[in-house]
Amino acid sequence: MADSVGESDNDNGNRDDETAVDGNSLGRCLDLTSFQLHDLSEVDIPEGLVELDLTANRLSKLDHRIGLLAQLKKLSLRQNLFDDEGIEPLCGWSTISGLQELVLRDNKLSKIPDATIFKDLLVFDVSFNEISSLNGLSKVSNTLKELYVSKNEVRKMEELEHLQALQILELGSNRFRVMENLENLKILEELWLGRNRIRAVNLCGLKCIRKISLQSNRLTSMLGFQECVGLEELYLSHNGIAKMEGLSTLENLRVLDVSSNKLTAINGIEKLTRLEDLWLNDNQITSLEGIDVAVAGSKETLTTIYLEHNPCASSPNYSTTLKQIFPKLQQIDSDIFM
Hints:
Region (Disordered): 1-20
CATH topology of the domain at 233-338: Leucine-rich repeat, LRR (right-handed beta-alpha superhelix)
Distance between the termini: 19 Å
Structural class: mainly beta
Protein name: Protein phosphatase 1 regulatory subunit pprA
Strand order of the largest sheet: 1-2-3-4-5-6-7-8-9-10-11-12-13-14-15-16
Shape: elongated
Keywords: Leucine-rich repeat, Repeat
Number of helices: 3
InterPro entries: Leu-rich_rpt, Leu-rich_rpt_4, Leu-rich_rpt_typical-subtyp, LRR_dom_sf
Order of helices and strands: EEEEHEEEEEEEEEHEHEE
Number of strands: 16
CATH superfamily of the domain at 233-338: Ribonuclease Inhibitor
CATH architecture of the domain at 233-338: Alpha-Beta Horseshoe
Pfam families: LRR_4 (PF12799)
């Protein structure tokens, strides 16, 4: 299963033989990924570019010609050497104010860049930097649909209230202790908060959420998800949860991961009828007795179950018993079968 950080990230891939110009877009997309460029002085930058990908280079300063690309919609500066000063000119180039996707992931930023001029921004990625505060998000357009700020040093959820069009919010690998200021994100579908220091669930009434990750936090309870009736995927591994509870209303749940917790029994999910993946490995579940009742609603839908590194996984006929109870199983632990 994918890690919470980067799970919602889109990788454009690498082109390391030659400059790639997308013929399908009539030369309007320029991909310079992994060219190890220190500057763009020897690169031709066509004025009609719609997409410019400069991922995985050695750039620390912006080429002024980027600021002349009036039709530019997507700009990726991912995995370079930009600091705050190096990226600052971008914020004043009004000619590219129609930008819809801005990726500054994996650089040396210490603060959120001023994105005031980008009135149509849909995707904003500042993950894997050295940002300590979300101050500056208030200047980001309320058109934003995807926001990525994972792997930074942020401590407080703030300046999110106006982002009411947001559908994906990735804040994994920061220093959050409290879930807050999410009330206005009414249509949020994905919330990624893995690897923080959160002790309690507070979804602030969000009901449209489909995917939530709170892996590797400090949770001791599963309570807090009851109103998220549209939830399809829930990732709670590596916490301190001792009891399965508060999940009976999640009738659309397909994936449930509560591995690496302190569970001693399986319960609270007997009403779930769409469960396909159930991850319970690395807990303290002693017996398979009663599992047919505990997971009764998903007998015909469950295709994957993980129970390894529990005492019950050492029981005689472990795999045979599970196959008999769940006829659609295709995987038990790492054993895949058809």
